[in-house]
Design goal:
Length: 145
């Protein structure tokens, strides 16, 4: 089974970092930073730290596992994390050096239901989970710890 890790990266301004994906012939959409767990990763959390470093040259404090999605051949784990620094210019991931993969633009989105409603966050299930958590007031408070 393929495992992927992704992060809800909450900033000091109570926004979250998302990546706007633009690909030819596909309507733009947004994803959370992260990617596949590799054989050399010591843990899922180590994989997430590696992915955050590759994709946004950032360092995050992982707070907790927020949600898991599973299909026949893939498991995605979504972690809530606090991030203080990042640099999209210093990213190093392979997705940025391989041609034909479209654009990856880092954006800050308000950590509100309205902020989520303003983007097409994929997968839809995590967008619903985030809306519920925001409405319950749990994300911002938890990430402030």
């Amino acid at each position: 089974m393929i495992e992927r890790v992704r992060a809800i990266l909450v900033t000091a301004d109570d926004t979250m970092l998302v990546i706007r994906r633009t690909r030819p012939g596909i309507p733009e959409y947004w994803v959370l930073p992260g990617g596949g767990v590799e054989p050399g990763d010591e843990s899922r959390e180590a994989a997430l730290h590696r992915e955050i470093h590759e994709e946004i040259a950032g360092k995050a404090d992982i707070i907790r596992l927020l949600h898991t999605m599973e299909s026949d051949d893939e498991r995605q784990l979504f972690y809530l994390a606090r991030i203080a620094t990042w640099s999209f210019e210093d990213r190093t991931g392979p997705e940025f050096s391989v041609g034909g993969r479209g654009e990856y633009a880092l954006e800050e989105v308000p950590l509100t239901v309205e902020g989520l409603d303003g983007i097409d966050l994929k997968p839809e299930e995590i967008a619903h989970v985030l809306r519920r958590a925001i409405s319950a007031g749990s994300l911002g408070a938890e990430a402030s710890l």
